[in-house]
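Can anyone check this?
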Amino acid sequence: MRRLLCVVVLLLVTAVSVGVAQAMNGQPKGGSVTIQPAAAQAAARTAAAGPGSTPCFQGHPVPNPCSSSDPQVRLRFYTSSGDTSSCSFTANITWGDGAKTAQSFRGGPLNATVVLIRHLYARRGTYSINGQVSSPSGCNGFSFSLKFVLQRLRAPATLAALGDSYSAGEGTEAYDPKSRTCHRSPNWAWPRLLPKHNPAITTVNLLACSGAKSTSLDKNDKFERAQLVTLKNLKPQPNLVTITIGGNDIGFSGVLKDCFLHDCLRTGVLEETEKKIAHQRGTLMQDYQRIQWAAPNATVLVVGYPQIFNDHRNCGRYTWAEAHRLNRLGAMLNDQIKAAAGNVRLNYVDVTDVFRGHEECAKDSWVYPITWTTGAFQQEPAHPTKRGQQAIAAAVARYMSEHL
């Protein structure tokens, strides 16, 4: 748990900028541009975050490599001598994690900040930051090369949990009545259980809603405000965001219904759902990018879906062949979720096997029983029970400890 506590503090200290002091190779016309930290802000961050949290790249010369527990690096470009107001510049930066930034900006008067370029790292590690600043207006540019080591810290963290029923706590039979059909479980949804694994998570904002689709992120749904609107207006802003999304977009509950009532190996519903899954990656990428926009200082964990059937046995009205195909649909969707998260450089948490040995129809199942009694599907079937929620929480906490 100590490693995990360190990670959460790392997430907290993203609000204040970090800069780089770097001498320019040559002088642009009329003066010079360089990059340097905002010292007062850096000092404030250090005081707030505690020992070991000093941001990197302060002062001159720049320590290389530089170690910090702050996952956000900000490069402040400013005019260090003369006047560069007549100059235009383009900065091209590679951050060492696959991300690149290309940004154009104008110069300015002496000591003026001309641009602030920021990057947020997703997980701890050692990164090489390389930059080239050129001037299409004929002023001289400069280059810089830095090595950044992202470490861990201890500090309180604020979590926002977005998405669908698999984050809301559906299946626990213990819901906040104010959440109505969103079926949020105040005590048993797995995001609510994360503080038990990591006491440094002091606040959990549970925004997920049963039945939520991608459109629920930016449009009002079930008489509730759009999740991203709520996320953007949270005070304090969260530094950790989790999300499960995609299952309702492909109509997975309808597939379960079809297989429960019919021989779905013959109805064509499985093939149609596979086609839907194949087109989900773009939608998911847009979902994740909108989260990054709404919570730009947060580390985002994209969580997949667990396998709910045993591949090798019949389960009630589901034959083993149907169970196998349903599991395959889940695996295909998880592949799309993982790929989309990777494409926008977010963390993907694989929870496929958290129910192993405890799937639907197992003697000690962690999945709410799938039944058909009233002519309409209830919300709870095929969702994690309280024990299942605990298993997902443990898997997410373990990922945070190992990777962030």
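Reply from J.R.: I decoded it. The first strand starts at residue 31 and ends at 35.
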